[in-house]
Design brief:
Layout lengths: L13 H16 L6 H14 L21 E8 L3 E2 L9 H16 L8 E5 L10 H8 L8 E4 L5 H14 L5 E8 L10 H12 L3 H9 L22 H12 L3 H20 L9 E2 L5 E2 L10 H5 L21 E11 H6 L6 E10 L9 H13 L8 E4 L4 H11 L2 H7 L20 H4 L6 H16 L3 E8 L3 E9 L4
Parallel strand pairs: 3-4, 3-5, 10-11
Antiparallel strand pairs: 1-8, 1-9, 2-8, 5-8, 6-7, 9-12, 11-12
Helix pairs in contact: 1-8, 2-9, 3-4, 8-13, 12-13
Keywords: Acetylation, Acyltransferase, Endoplasmic reticulum, Fatty acid metabolism, Lipid metabolism, Membrane, Mitochondrion, Mitochondrion inner membrane, Mitochondrion outer membrane, Signal, Transferase, Transit peptide
GO cellular component, one term: mitochondrial outer membrane
Catalytic activity: octanoyl-CoA + acetyl-CoA = 3-oxodecanoyl-CoA + CoA; dodecanoyl-CoA + acetyl-CoA = 3-oxotetradecanoyl-CoA + CoA; an acyl-CoA + acetyl-CoA = a 3-oxoacyl-CoA + CoA; butanoyl-CoA + acetyl-CoA = 3-oxohexanoyl-CoA + CoA
Length: 492
């Protein structure tokens, strides 16, 4: 999200200054002889060089609930996530979505006729294919009798697609649903100005040459100025990057800490790619171009190189840069979700159970990116688990500052009592369990597709490491967030 905006002291609401001051003061007061950030940094660096291959979690209780159907993740795929403006640049969103649908069909051999419903998430919609799920499903060869719809919930759009599928299956409406997501930032809609749109629409209704000439005579030079899309909150007119910069200042997250976390993400992603752990990635033959086989945003760097970059949002004193923020990405993902009985009857060995999930919402002005901090304790309590029970954490990395600020919020008694209505802190995930195959900072973040990547990666990491429970969490525009518990399917 490397979109720059305008920033100035007048843009800060007085209440936000108060909150930032309170937070900074609180975190200065709770620091010990060895600071929290220093300990976290040590964990980060340790987890880069000593990522365990086996979690070896002791067997725990299953989260199956009496009277509720078990819903399983059979498999998931994604085409490589690419920086916008690169190899996918001449395609359209439904092309990417169609590719993952066809890839999922190939991977699972599911007969098209057995898929009862398709739901996709997206954020910035192509106006020609507003229901991209329907256009992609038809393009992939599914029957025109297969219902398909599209949902949007900012960065958790495919999370919403998956939980919609879970609801359809758990309620007995369907047995087999494909959920997915797509985002195409290489070609976003750019509109005429509102004044010009009014003129053009009126021209369609003009019945005489005189009426047409009269309308054309009203056009002024400023009417030709286009309306460019912006990754900004409608309610606050503030970009997510500005919010991340303020959040970093409020929680005392330094530029160096953010750069170190971003490097960690890239190093771990490169390691996972080299070791062929990213099993959800499928090749995609781009029409007229070459076959894409891997993500192109994984670029391990050094602290020295990272330090040379200038702030992207709040200049000159901000800490968010192009390298410690997720980049604009093209990509798509899809998962096959079924009732356990149906999956077993068809001979599938599922990857995981999809268990409890929650959605949360906060004030988009001062807590825009804190969704994981709120969703984590809520979904843990719903599932009857403690933080220590979780073997794998997969959190969406919108910004390094966002991840580190959420960590500090989760580790603060003061924040828990003041803002979350809790008696004590949530706690911090162990870093050797956290985003160990990279994250959105390195793999990329197609807004509508990241959720499926999180869930599929979590399932593969559980199997790879012998763990039982994974927790995924993500923030989203509007101050919203999502959390879900994934339980590995018995592998014996």
């Amino acid at each position: 999200m490397r979109l720059c905006g305008v920033w100035g002291p007048k843009a800060l609401d007085f209440n936000l200054l108060i909150m930032a001051s309170m937070l900074a003061h609180a975190f200065r007061n709770v620091s010990t002889s060895v600071s929290w950030t220093a300990k976290l940094n040590a964990r980060l660096l340790s987890s880069v060089s000593h990522t365990p291959s086996q979690v070896q979690s002791a067997s725990k209780k299953t989260l199956a609930k009496p009277g509720l159907r078990n819903v399983v993740l059979v498999d998931g795929v994604r085409i490589p996530f690419l920086m916008s403006g690169t190899t996918y640049a001449d395609l359209m969103p439904h092309d990417l979505a169609r590719a993952v649908l066809q890839g999922l069909l190939t991977r699972t051999s599911i007969p098209k006729a057995d898929v009862e419903y398709i739901v996709f998430g997206t954020v910035i919609q192509e106006v020609k294919t507003s229901n991209v799920a329907r256009e992609a499903s038809l393009g992939a060869g599914f029957s025109d009798k297969t219902p398909s719809h599209t949902v949007t919930m900012a960065c958790i759009s495919s999370n919403q697609a998956m939980t919609t599928a879970v609801g359809l299956i758990a309620s007995g409406q369907c047995e087999t649903v494909i959920a997915g997501g797509v985002e195409f930032m290489s070609d976003v809609p750019i509109r005429h100005s509102r004044k010009m749109r009014k003129i053009l629409l009126s021209l369609n209704r003009a019945k005489t040459i005189g009426q047409t000439l009269s309308l054309l005579g009203k056009i002024r030079p400023d009417y030709f100025a286009p309306e460019l899309p912006a990754v900004a909150e409608f309610s606050t007119s503030e970009s997510m990057g500005h919010s991340a910069d303020r959040l970093a200042a409020a929680f005392g997250v330094s530029r160096a800490e953010q750069d170190e976390f971003a490097i960690r993400s890239h190093v771990l992603a490169k390691k996972a790619e080299t070791e062929k752990l990213l099993k959800d990635v499928i090749p995609f033959k781009v029409p007229g171009r070459h076959t894409v086989t891997k993500d192109n945003g994984i670029r391990p760097s050094s602290v020295e190189q990272m330090a040379k970059l200038k702030p992207a949002f709040i200049k000159p004193h901000g800490t968010i840069t192009a390298a410690n923020a997720s980049f604009l990405t093209d990509g798509a993902s899809a998962v096959l979700i079924m009732s356990e009985d149906k999956a077993l009857a068809m001979g599938y060995k599922p990857l995981a159970y999809l268990r409890d999930f929650v959605y949360v919402s906060q004030d988009p002005k001062d807590q825009l990116l804190l969704g994981p901090a709120y969703a984590t304790p809520k979904v843990l309590e719903k599932a009857g688990l403690a933080l220590e029970d979780i073997d794998v954490f997969e959190f969406h990395e919108a910004f390094a500052a966002q991840i580190l600020s959420n960590m500090k919020a989760m580790d603060s008694d003061w924040f828990a009592k003041t803002y979350m209505g809790r008696k004590s802190r949530v706690g911090v995930p162990k870093m050797d369990k956290f985003n160990c195959w990279g994250g959105s900072l390195s793999l990329g973040h197609p807004f509508g597709a990241t959720g499926c990547r999180l869930v599929t990666t979590a399932a593969h990491r559980l199997i790879n490491g012998g763990g039982q429970y994974a927790l995924i969490a993500a923030c989203a525009a509007g101050g919203q967030g999502h959390g879900m518990v994934v339980e590995t399917y018995p592998q014996k």
